[in-house]
Amino acid sequence: MTELxxxxxxxxxxxxxxxxxxxxxxxxxxxxVIHAGDWVDISLLDELEGRAxxxxxxxxxxxxxxxxxxxPEVARAEVGGIRIAVIHETGAETGRETRADSSFPGVDxxxxxxxxxxxxxxxxxxxxxxxxxxxxxxxxxxxxxxMTATVDDGALRNVTLVTVRRGGDTV
Length: 171
Known about the structure:
Pfam families: Metallophos_2. InterPro entries: Calcineurin-like_PHP_lpxH, Metallo-depent_PP-like, Phosphodiesterase_MJ0936/Vps29. The protein is an alpha/beta fold. 19% of the residues lie in helices and 32% in strands. It has one domain: Purple Acid Phosphatase, chain A, domain 2 (4-Layer Sandwich).
């Protein structure tokens, strides 16, 4: 069994000075941390690389040349038999599933960010789309969020949207 933590749109230090203690505790528990871009400050990448057991990340539209030099626009990995792709932006909500099926053939899970809006759907082709929202900038959402999931016996299970309070505690 492999524990996943999905993050995106951390926007440090613009939206928060640091990640909350509960986000760091989730990093410590996870076997794989996936970050779908908009880190903003390279120091978070350095911290996550030093702390996560395995880190899969991409750059986002708010990430500068220093982050783009170290991260791909699209990352692909296999975790416990699940083929995963990570990208920051998938475009407009309308047509997202069709575009994802077309752009990511052979992928089981696509993790993305950009909108700060949590998302969990499955495309007609069977591709699972997950956006964890943002643990630091809720925008028009009621809460800041991240996601956890488990990969077990080649299947994605226990996908959970975790609410993160601004003060740092999960709800």
